[in-house]
Amino acid sequence: MTNEQVIQQFQDYVISNYTRYPVCLERGEESTVWDIDGNRYLDFFPGWGCGLIGHCPPKVVEAVQKQIAELIHVPNTWYMKLQGQLAEALSKRTNFNGRCFFCNSGTEANEAAIKLARLWGKSQSTTSSSSSNSTNSNRYKIITMLNSFHGRTMGALSATGQPKYHRGVEPLLPGFQYAPFGDAEAIEKLIDKETVAVMLEPIQGEGGINLPPQGYIEIVREICDRHHLLMICDEVQTGMGRTGKWYSHQHWSVQPDIVTLAKALAGGVAAGGLIAKPEIAEKLKPGTHAATFGGNPIACSAALATIETIEEEGLLKRATEIGEHFHQRLLKMKEKSPIIQEIRILGAMIGVQLIADGAPIVQEAMKHGLLINCTHQTVLRLLPSLRIKSSDIDQGCDILEKILPKYQ
Ligand SMILES: Cc1ncc(COP(=O)(O)O)c(C=O)c1O
After folding, report:
1. Whose CA is nearest to atom 16 of ligand 1?
2. What is the pLDDT of residues 28-60, one digit of tens each?
3. 248: domain CATH number?
């Protein structure tokens, strides 16, 4: 089949709820992908953030191939070795001794976190804490951030602080209030006796790679402690080493109560999950929550192989080096490209704030064989593989350097 034939088939049979580029990707290796017509692209945005260790990482491929021939699915009515091993591996990489729940995507991970927070809130009526709202058993409100992105199912969508995603599907799930990201006072003003949690991406991804102001994450933790609220970190995009730490909140030495993960968790295989402190996790009792495919053997084998690859190849350190390499190249580009307003980077999470629409740049980069992303209309977003070669970074940056000065 050709690109054109595949596109025609989509037009006839697939619901067009995505804006797609007119290219059908067929094969990938590390930071390179090929389309069905044989065209080659360097990929600075592999798998929409899921390709943390590149396309078809060898250990993940091997682990999945082995597992799929052994046992494809184990329902959660049985124990399964790999799920336990993955939970231990994820927990040990936090600074708290967490317990895990597994699902299949970021939105599901956040749904689970929302339910867990509410279950925990309802169970708190008998606590003896002096905090004013700790004795209220009807605590369900969650404060999230403007510009956040937590997913597309109704709970996670309601948590998402962007009205454009709400339009047409209201009413939303009640109980979400939004504070500007970076404004701790605004959070405090929204707290009342029904508030149960604060939920945030430590670095906003879809919202434009927005880094928190200095001290903000620590203050959010302190506010949560003072008001007896849970701090939920959505690490769906920032987790698994993307920023140079296993979980991005570790840059600020705080301990969240719940961490949600997905995207890169299983090296590109669909997987999601949460890690919660034990005294909170225990509120998810049998019957309260479930996911048929959650923690399945294929996803768990892929996730364990992902962790092994990150560790064996020293990719946390490499994430920081990648960020520095991009930073140097982008700073040079900024001198010659008036369209660049600001560069925001933590590890291999890279945002280039433009003063104009970034979509035409994404299109032109693609014509030159480079795949990048634009989010929030004016932010070029790069989430390269942690296994990307320095020569590939330079090759892609050469393309951007050529293109960007043409845009104002
Ligand atoms: C921070 C964050 N949370 C949640 C999600 C939703 O994840 P999924 O698309 O796997 O449901 C995303 C997706 O981009 C995300 O970036």
Report:
1. 237
2. 999 999 999 999 999 999 999 999 999 999 999
3. 3.40.640.10
